[in-house]
Specification:
alpha+beta, signal, disordered C terminus, 3-stranded antiparallel β-sheet
């Protein structure tokens, strides 16, 4: 008998506490049941597709790969010696017309101890003994 009474009291107390703790539950359930107004068909058609198709995904991947290319290395060229229309640059001998890292050797000047290299529209002058005789002019804009 004591066991049945204990179960009855537990059940009755939980029922009373359940009713007193959540008085607004019925009202909330009724709000959920009411029909909600969404977007019209025209508004839905104006929306963009949130999913990316395969072609667009490949374009994005290619752009990221292009953006992550390695930065260009800076090339250091040093003229070590000039002998019989040959110039020793970075430890190798070159003659007029040879290319060094994309630069074409155009002139070997023994008197001024220099060589002139061209790459597209860019000119590079290398001097013996690291004597830099280049002068720069500032252009006014």
């Amino acid at each position: 008998m004591g066991y049945k009474l204990l179960i009855f009291v537990t059940f009755f107390s939980s029922f009373i506490l359940a009713n007193t703790q959540y008085p607004d539950i019925d009202r909330l359930i009724e709000q959920v049941k009411t029909k909600r107004v969404g977007l019209s068909k025209k508004e839905i058609e104006k929306l963009q597709n949130p999913f990316i198709n395969e072609k667009k995904l490949q374009k994005i991947i290619k752009k990221q790969k292009v953006a992550k290319k390695k930065p260009k290395r800076r090339i250091h060229l040093k003229l070590y010696s000039i002998f019989n229309n040959r110039a020793k640059i970075n430890g190798k001998w070159y003659t007029i017309g040879n290319t060094i890292y994309g630069y074409r050797l155009v002139k070997i000047d023994k008197g001024k101890k220099r060589v002139i290299l061209f790459k597209k529209k860019r000119m590079l002058v290398l001097y013996l003994n690291n004597v830099n005789k280049r002068k720069f002019k500032l252009l006014k804009m």
